[in-house]
Specification:
Elements: E1 19-24, E2 30-34, E3 38-39, E4 42-43, E5 47-50, H1 76-79
Antiparallel strand pairs: 1-2, 2-5, 3-4
Length: 81
């Protein structure tokens, strides 16, 4: 049986709908934006940050999220965090 290495990116169950934009930060985290309202079963309104292993970064909180779907790449200032 194959086992994933410890640094394997596992997106889990993902989102219920489209991810439109992806940006990788300098720390290896992944910013995603799109139409979704949850990521891996955790409420995230259209924008979320994932840890380098694919889990939702619970320290990244954007209150109510975006008020419409995310169509553009996250700004570079966000990506540096």
């Amino acid at each position: 049986m194959w086992t994933a290495p410890s640094n394997f990116f596992d997106p889990g169950i993902g989102t219920e709908t489209n991810v439109m934009r992806v940006a990788i930060t300098s720390t290896g985290r992944v910013l995603i934006g799109g139409w979704f309202s949850w990521v891996n079963g955790i409420a995230r309104s259209r924008i979320a940050r994932l840890n380098s292993n694919g889990t939702v970064d619970m320290t990244f909180v954007v209150n109510e999220g975006a008020n419409d779907h995310v169509r553009e790449s996250p700004c570079s200032r966000m990506a540096k965090r």
